[in-house]
Amino acid sequence: METATQKTRTASKRTLTGVVVSLKMAKTVVVAVTRLKMHPKYKKQYKVTKKFKAHNESGQFVLGDRVTIVESKPISKDKHWIVKI
């Protein structure tokens, strides 16, 4: 029998860019990500905003900062993102 070779998968982690909208939690920031979406029938573009909780170990950000967040393994119930410095 031959030994099974393991394939290493290097999946690129998703990155999103947004604006810090809340700093009220310890080591956590809330980032609002806005993207344009097109209506399927009328073909009009409209803005959709979604908020993500991201881990912020350093605490160096202030409200309104534009940050990049990277997907990671679950850190808590709601946190699955890390702020990229």
UniProtKB/TrEMBL annotation:
Gene3D superfamilies cross-referenced by the UniProt entry:
Nucleic acid-binding proteins
Q: Which keywords has UniProt assigned to this entry?
A: Ribonucleoprotein, Ribosomal protein, RNA-binding, rRNA-binding
Is Electron transport one of the keywords? no
What GO CC annotations are associated with the protein?
cytosolic small ribosomal subunit
**Can you state the subunit structure given in the record?**
Part of the 30S ribosomal subunit.
Q: Which HAMAP family match?
A: Ribosomal_uS17_B
Cited PANTHER family: 40S RIBOSOMAL PROTEIN S11 FAMILY MEMBER, SMALL RIBOSOMAL SUBUNIT PROTEIN US17M
Protein name from the UniProt record? Small ribosomal subunit protein uS17
What lineage, starting at the top, does this entry show? Answer: Bacteria, Candidatus Yanofskyibacteriota
* Gene responsible for this protein: rpsQ
